[in-house]
Design a protein that fits this description.
The chain is mainly alpha-helical. The protein folds into 2 domains: 3-209, Cation efflux protein transmembrane domain (Alpha-lytic protease prodomain-like, Up-down Bundle), CATH 1.20.1510; 215-298, 2-Layer Sandwich (Alpha-Beta Plaits). 68% of the residues lie in helices and 10% in strands. The chain has helices at 3-37, 40-66, 80-110, 119-146, 149-176, 181-209, 215-224, 260-277; strands at 233-242, 245-255, 281-290. Helix 3 runs antiparallel to helix 6 and helix 5 runs antiparallel to helix 6 (181-209).
């Protein structure tokens, strides 16, 4: 592994590991306060953070595996483990929602909504928002830098915690003024937020696992060939995500009288242009002959 790859792997593992410790702290803090006060909002946040902990561990595991080089059994590398991890985290988020919704409706229907609110209720939520904000920023920064699906999913987990904690905070304020049903409603609001984020995260994960290609990416790859007049045509472009990498395959047409060496140089030049415009990609160009115009008309090197 190159030095720059080792640094990237180390950075990814560090930010994932710090998120594990943050999730452990938040889960324990929320669980203790939630049990002491009986607040569904805080208990739902504790469960949310517990699943965040599982997700953070999954992310740490995923980034370690994803950085392993390609081998004879995984010729495209191990990057897909990040997409699998992101999908797994989506499922965990949805499990959270099922429990929160069930408990919230049970409390609203039974009328058992009394909650004891004290200063610790507000402290734990405020501390949670501060920690979640710092972790989500760090994770998203690393995710964008290294194009990591697993880190992006983990960042979304902590981002949803910020939104849900803010909703619970409002619910605690209502409960403090004896509007106890506010707590159950805040729990439902948390579930709605998490379902929305889960849908977006799950859809992206499934798209990556199904090798869905962005039409904009295909258009970009085609447009980059304009810079090389020796290329007559670009077709059969295939692109898919594998963790941090974008794997691209395509065919180009060059004049059939070009030498193998010259044709290879043209393909290599095109690869370099694509890599300069698309971060972290692997490009394979297949060369095909094209003979509708003479090479001499374009002043190209030809074999005699």
């Amino acid at each position: 592994m190159h030095e720059i790859d080792q640094k990237a792997a180390k950075d990814k593992r560090f930010v994932a590991l710090t998120s594990v410790f943050a999730a452990i702290f938040l889960t324990g803090m929320k669980l203790i306060v939630g049990l002491l006060t009986g607040s569904l909002g805080i208990l739902s946040e504790a469960l949310h953070s517990a699943l965040d902990l599982v997700a953070a561990v999954m992310t740490l595991f995923a980034v370690k595996i994803a950085d392993k080089p390609a081998d004879k059994d995984h010729t495209y590398g191990h990057g897909k483990i990040e997409n699998i991890s992101a999908l797994g985290e989506t499922i965990l988020l949805l499990i959270t929602c099922i429990w929160i919704i069930y408990e919230a409706f049970s409390r609203l229907i039974s009328g058992n909504t009394h909650v004891e609110v004290n200063i610790w209720s507000f402290i734990v939520i405020i501390a949670s928002i501060i920690i979640d904000f710092s972790r989500s920023r760090a994770l998203m920064k690393a995710a964008k830098k290294y194009n990591s699906a697993a880190l992006e999913a983990d960042a979304l987990h902590f981002s949803t915690d910020i939104l849900s904690s803010a909703v619970v905070f409002l619910g605690l304020i209502g409960t403090y003024f004896n509007y106890y049903f506010f707590d159950a409603i805040s729990g439902l609001a948390v579930a709605i937020i998490v379902i929305h984020i889960s849908y977006k995260l799950g859809r992206k994960s499934i798209d990556d696992l199904m090798d869905r290609t962005s039409p904009e990416l295909i258009t970009l790859i085609e447009s980059l060939a304009v810079a090389i007049p020796e290329i007559y045509q670009v077709h059969d472009i295939r692109a898919r995500n594998s963790g941090a990498l974008v794997l691209i395959e395509l065919n180009i047409h060059v004049h059939d009288n070009l030498t193998i060496k010259v044709a290879h140089e043209i393909a290599h030049k095109y690869e370099d242009i694509i890599k300069a415009n698309i971060e972290k990609c692997h490009v394979h160009v297949h060369i095909e002959p094209h003979n509708t115009e003479t090479a001499r008309e374009k002043n190209l090197p030809i074999t005699e």
